[in-house]
Every structure is written in C-alpha cells, then in structure tokens.
Specification:
Largest sheet: 5 strands, mixed
Distance between the termini: 60 Å
Number of strands: 13
CATH architecture of the largest domain: Beta Barrel
Strand content: 15-25%
Helix content: 25-40%
Radius of gyration: 19 Å
C-alpha cells in the first residue's frame, strides 16, 4: 500500500495447495490498482500486519471487478478460493462469512469442488499432514482431561481423526452449551492444521467446530452408525 501499511485479510485462511493459492492470487490480480478502504479488525498479528477488511472503493468496482468482489475477503470466500477461519483469534470477527462459505460449498465452487475428507478416514487424512483441513464426521467419544479434551472420530485401535481442544477453549465451548454429553454421537465439521502423531490430529479454536444437522450430512455413514449403536 502507498501508506506503507502491511495488512492481512481478517477471518480468512489462504489456501495452502499450489493450485488453489494460484487461483486465489489470480482473483486478486484482477483487483490490482483499485483503491481500497481499510477497516481494522483487532490487534496486529505476530508479524505486525494489521488485520483488516479491504473494501474496493465504489467508483472502482465496475473497472476492476464485479460487486461480489468489492469486499476482498467475502469475494474470495464466496468464490470458493479461501476458507472462513478465525486464525489466531478465538472466533470470527465476521461470523457472516461462514454463511458466504456455506453458499460456495453448496455450489461446489473452488476448494469445495471435491468432497471433504471423512473424519474416520485415517489414510486420507494422513495424506494431508501439514495442511489446513476441513473435515466432517461423527464424534464417537469425548475424553475430558485436565489440560485438554479429546474428540475421537474412530473406534479405539482404528485409524481416524482425533481433535484436541485446549482447556481454555473447552471452557468457552461449554459456555456456548456444548458438552461431552451433547457432542458424543453428533456430526460436526472441524477445521484446523492437520498433524500426524499416533494418528491424524488437529487442534480446534472456538469457531473451529460446527455442529451439523442430520440433513446436512453429505452421505450416509452406515458403518459408523452401527458402531455407535453397539
């Protein structure tokens, strides 16, 4: 920017695969040269970059983009080129971006053109180690411990995802009405950076776990359901 300000789009996770990142950059390139309004969002990040919304000036919209691209974060997410994610924060500054993301997911745009990995599919998740992942599945067991809570998506001894929740985050989730009793057997969508320890693992922030209605389920999981009934 002319002012010298270094800014990062708030409530947005840049894709980390080369093809997806290239598509997102191409989308932004069509907005190069446009005047923008910077709307600060909270404290700078660890690299001293301002978290902000960047809004293309009204007079420049017709020249460089359509109206959907006036809000850069919303435009990228709405095109399926980036994820709505709180990053280092506990929750999204703009919760409405999840609705924008949901619309892109329903249409199979960009990142959502392939099925989400199933949380009980260990081999598929292992292949995504080191990457930001959005996965869906049914929580089979919740283990509350002193420092962390563990959400297991696969039966003991089988290969599947384990989600870890810090004590602080679990306390905030409980304040929102979530508990071990309400989550066991529930289908959820989780997101975060995937690691492989004993098995595929990711740690979620407060907004990194979404509970799903049964009608949101993309496909049946009869094996998982049978396991829960046993």
């Amino acid at each position: 920017m002319v002012s010298g300000l270094r800014a990062v789009l708030d409530s947005l996770r840049w894709p980390d695969t080369p093809e997806a990142a290239s598509a997102a950059r191409a989308w932004l390139e069509t907005r190069r040269g446009a005047r923008v309004t910077v709307v600060p969002r909270g404290q700078p990040d660890r690299w001293d970059r301002a978290r902000a919304d960047l809004l293309v000036a009204e007079g420049d919209i017709a020249e460089v983009a359509d109206l959907a691209g006036a809000d850069l974060a919303g435009g990228l997410i709405g095109a399926g080129l980036a994820y709505a994610d709180a990053g280092e924060a506990d929750s999204l500054c703009r919760p409405g971006l999840r609705l924008v993301e949901a619309a892109a997911r329903a249409r199979g745009l960009g990142l959502w053109g392939v099925a989400l990995p199933a949380a009980q599919d260990g081999p598929a998740l292992r292949a995504k180690a080191g990457h930001f992942v959005v996965a869906e599945g049914r929580i089979r067991h919740v283990g509350e411990r002193g420092a962390r809570t563990y959400l297991d998506f696969a039966a003991r001894g089988t290969d599947g995802l384990t989600v870890t929740v810090s004590k602080r985050t679990w306390r905030m989730m409980r304040a929102r009405g979530l508990s071990a009793a309400s989550l066991e057997g529930r289908r959820v969508r989780v997101r975060g950076l995937l690691e492989v320890r004993r098995g595929p693992t990711l740690e979620v922030a407060l907004d990194g776990l979404e509970t799903l209605e049964e009608t949101d389920r993309p496909e049946a999981d009869p094996e998982g359901e049978r396991g829960l009934r046993r």
